UniProtKB/TrEMBL annotation:
The keyword Iron-sulfur applies. Coiled coil: none annotated. GO terms for molecular function: 4 iron, 4 sulfur cluster binding; metal ion binding. InterPro entries: Cytosolic_Fe-S_CAF, Fe_hydrogenase, Fe_hydrogenase_lsu_C, Fe_hydrogenase_ssu. Pfam families: Fe_hyd_lg_C (PF02906), Fe_hyd_SSU (PF02256). Transmembrane segments: none annotated. Belongs to the NARF family. Residues 414-471 form the Iron hydrogenase small subunit domain. This is Iron hydrogenase small subunit domain-containing protein.
């Protein structure tokens, strides 16, 4: 029997959309026709409603850009739920089994800070977490392999439909835009229209893919029911907290006689997100010397560690989406096996790079990596004017990508930001074997025993998501950030 034999049946699962969290921000003091001072966001258009000037404006969590510029009560709730204090409360209460999934970017951030390898960092983290009472520590490079495979399948599907296809009921066209960065997704939903949103890949990010795997399937293999699990991720940015809070990632279990948990209960795929920096604070507060911690064996169930004990995973500090899909498309569509590593051509700046494949003198594949909002705005402008030639774009909100995420450990005294990024890029793959996601035995096991095959109906149900145009609201006033 496969080690991934199902305890939960997929037929028992049913997507569920939870109601939005809402808070009220009072704008009573804002006069309807007053001119805003320089630098003050103009609010009065929002208060000229039938309730007149005293009507409060509703701001939901969906309005949050995770910019830390303002804190609504919904944001406060979210931040309290996703804090080190809440994590410690959960482990000490022992009411639920706490499972932690560590991102490769956070692992690299800690490894760089302590001057060790990512493998050593993960092993020491495992020792630390288990000393607190955590049941298992996993690695989101593993779930990222599933996100990458699903993204490859999605790309081929759109390509074969020659740029348009009815995928999850939406008309799809090129370029397909990566979806793993919640900073970009959040920005797109609040400031761009449906014609751009329909280009965003429907595949869940590695964080949410891991949440779906653990809560909807793997917990049963650990002898746990879904409501007995508290799932924590360690991520490079605060935006991942916002991603975990999306209504799209809440699910319920459909009732049947075999399932005691069936009914109205709702479950989140990820309960708490800690940033790399918060992780460092926790380590410094709770253990006298991280370097003296033993290196525990890794939990292999959902960790990319091979038989000889080496970590493996995809290249690319932001997930390697462009490279992975490019290789797959070259192989599947043009029968070309590409050597490694691929050569990206730098365009306007180091955060805008291009990959092309030529066959008989003709460019047949044109991909790009586009990081930072300055480049994103240029790309969107090109899309709107019909001048974008790319078939796929790996979009990331942070300049330099996820290794430079806002939640990463800050540079040491005397170390510049540039030096830190260079160091992180080296450490990221130090003693980590670059691998093909399709060869990952854990992911193969998940498809065999749960999801059937890449791009299957089951995958569409649990590994894919959707996007929503948000009502233009307070946050969308900040349109030129
Ligand atoms: S690019 Fe930045 S905001 Fe986006 S997922 Fe990576 S770290 Fe988070």
């Amino acid at each position: 029997m496969s080690k991934f034999s199902a305890g939960l049946k997929l037929g028992d699962l049913n997507d569920f959309i939870a109601p939005s969290q809402t808070c009220i921000v009072s704008l009573k003091g804002v006069k309807k026709n007053s001119q805003p001072e320089k630098g003050v966001i103009r609010m009065q258009e929002r208060v000229q409603t039938t309730e007149q000037d005293t009507a409060p404006v509703k701001v939901t969590l969906h309005d949050c850009l995770a910019c830390s510029g303002c804190v609504t009560s919904a944001e406060t709730v979210m931040l309290e739920q996703q804090s080190v204090d809440e994590f410690l409360k959960q482990v000490s209460s022992a009411e639920k089994a706490v499972i932690v999934s560590v991102s490769p970017q956070s692992r690299a951030s800690l490894a760089s800070y302590y001057g060790i390898t990512p493998l050593q960092a993960l092993k020491k983290l495992t020792t630390f977490f288990k000393s607190l009472g955590v049941k298992a520590v996993f690695d989101t490079s593993c779930s990222r392999d599933m996100s990458l495979i699903e993204s490859c399948e999605e790309f081929i599907k759109v390509y074969k439909a020659q740029g348009t296809s009815n995928f999850k009921g939406q008309k799809r066209g090129f370029p397909l835009l990566a979806s793993s960065c919640p900073g970009w997704v959040c920005y797109a939903e609040k400031t761009l229209d449906a014609s751009i949103l329909s280009h965003i890949s429907c595949v869940k990010s590695p964080q949410q893919a891991m949440g779906a795997i653990i809560k909807r399937f793997a917990c049963a293999n650990m002898g746990l029911k879904v409501d007995e699990v508290y799932h924590v991720t360690v991520m490079p940015c605060y935006d991942k907290k916002l991603e975990a809070s999306r209504d799209d990632f809440v699910f319920s279990i459909e009732g049947n006689e075999n399932n005691e948990q069936a009914g109205t209960a709702r479950f989140t795929e990820v309960d708490c997100v800690l940033t790399s920096g918060e992780m460092l604070d926790l380590l410094q507060g709770r253990c006298s010397d991280f370097m003296l911690l033993d290196e525990s064996p890794l939990d292999r169930m959902l960790t990319n560690v091979d038989e000889s004990g080496h970590l493996y995973g995809s290249r690319g500090g932001s997930g390697g989406y462009a490279e992975c899909i490019f290789r797959h498309a070259a192989r599947e569509l043009f029968n070309k096996e590409l050597s490694s590593p691929l050569e990206f051509k730098t365009l306007r700046n180091s955060d805008f790079k291009e990959l092309t494949l030529e066959v008989e003198g003709e460019v047949v594949l044109r991909f790009a990596c586009c990081y930072g909002f300055r480049n994103i705005q240029n790309l969107v402008r090109k899309m709107k004017t019909g001048k974008c030639e790319y078939q796929f774009v790996e979009i990331m909100a942070c300049p330099s990508g996820c290794l430079n995420g806002g939640g990463q450990i800050k540079p040491r005294k005397g170390q510049s930001g540039k030096e830190l990024i260079q160091n992180l890029e080296t450490v990221y793959l130090k003693e980590v074997n670059v691998s093909n996601p399709y060869e990952n035995p854990i992911i193969k096991g998940l498809y065999d025993s749960w999801l059937d095959h890449p791009g299957s109906q089951k995958c569409l149900q649990v590994m894919h998501t959707g996007y929503h145009t948000r009502e233009k609201n307070v946050a969308s006033e900040i349109s030129n950030w």
